[in-house]
Amino acid sequence: MLRRYGLPGEPVACERVAQGLLNRGYRLTTTGGHWFLKHHLDGDSPAIARQHAATVRLGALALPVAPPLADTDGRTTVVLDGHCYALHPWVEGRHRYGSQLTGAGSARLGNLLGRVHTVLEQIMPPAAHVPRPASGPAGPAPAGKLRLPGQRRPTYPAGPPAQESAEPADTYALIDELLARVRRRRAPDSFDALAEHRLTERRALLRQHAHRRPDPGEAPRPGWVHGDFHPLNLIYRGTEPAAIVDWDRLGVQPRAEEAVRAAAIFFVRPRGTLDLAKVRAYARGYRAATGAGQDELAAAVHRVWWERLNDFWMLRWRYELHDGRADDQFPAAAALAVWWTTRYEDVRQAFTG
Fold first, then answer.
1. Tens-digit pLDDT profile for residues 136-178
2. Whose CA is closest to 211, among 139, 300, 309?
3. From CA 327, how far away is CA 224, in angstroms rounded?
């Protein structure tokens, strides 16, 4: 890699970065500096080239990104021994959650995501000419699909084909299947007990609200989005964002839905409630940057609420893929689906008021 990129100095270390579910990242250190080495598990593809080109153009327009470096042949990906890599500048900083942001910082966060959406609209092909992906669960796989870490994902021009909102009958079947898996555990632990409780609770809640399934025609207008905007993909230097990273899910989705999903991750509290004051500041910052109206945000809130009500990707990773890396996210996420249902109007008002 040093030879391919002409990096200065001699190699010192290549250390795995702990965070990340879809690809592998390493801090590459030489006597001349530090870099971030990304191992794309899906291999080289047009999607990676599109992501790289987008971040280069975003950086040229003063958005905080860390575009890939070109090797000595001018390529931003390198294939060695059948593995695909990209090299990025190392960005010093830290991740910040909503609890660490002030009201003003929350507004700047929403404004930043809004600027990303508006600039992507300027630099990417018209969204109307690109197949729309589903607005399904925001887990680390296309909606309704699971894959083992490292397993190839299907490739699409900008995401999986469009799908309607989750069908309650399918969710009931999934809940029954997951409950059966939980109850077959030979040595159940406290997580299994919580999973069983939440699955049973969610089934009852879904039966109560099944008539509120969103109509496909209610989806907010689509546009290019980051696709995975959350605290681990945003690096702060002090109180200001230094880099938005991990553009693997760049694609076309209803933009306002990404704004709502991101808020539900940034501003969720440990007990599964949202800090609505910060959500309100964030949403105002987003609307100021994009011009999104109240109706667009209200539709996004409804669709993402429904998505969360039908979403069990964390349990599917644990019980179907036997991968527990998302386990620590489940308690707050599961509680949020219930709390959001009971405080539906308050949440909608926070995004639209």
1. 444 544 334 454 443 333 333 333 344 589 999 999 999 999 9
2. 309
3. 30
Q: How many CB atoms neighbour CB 79 within 10 A?
A: 12
For residue 304, how many C-alpha atoms fall within 13 Å in the half-sphere facing its CB?
A: 29
Give the number of residues written for the chain: 353
- Which tokens hold the place of 182? 């939980």
* Ranges of H-type helices in the chain: 2-5, 46-60, 103-123, 168-183, 190-209, 255-266, 276-290, 294-309, 313-319, 330-342, 344-352
Residue 217 CB partners (closer than 8 Å, separation 6+):
none
pTM beyond cutoff 0.85: yes
Dist CA 344 CA 312 (whole Å): 20
What 3-state class would DSSP assign to 291? coil
Question: Residues 78, 4: contact at Cβ < 8 Å?
Answer: yes
Are 292 and 285 in contact by the 8 Å Cβ rule? The answer is: no
Q: Is 44 exposed, middle or buried (0-12, 13-18, 19+ CB in 10 A)?
A: middle
The closest alpha carbon to 307, from 138, 178, 133, belongs to: 138
Rounded to whole angstroms, the Cα distance separating 76 from 204 reads 50
Both tokens of 263, joined, read: 């808020």
Query: Residue 184 has what pLDDT?
Result: 97
pLDDT tens for each residue of 208-227:
999 999 997 888 889 999 99
**Within the chain, what is the greatest distance between any pair of CA atoms?**
63
CA separation for the pair 254, 225 (Å, rounded): 8
Sign of the torsion formed by the C-alpha atoms of 243, 249, 252 and 258: negative
- Tell me if 70 sits within 8 A of 241, measured CB to CB: no
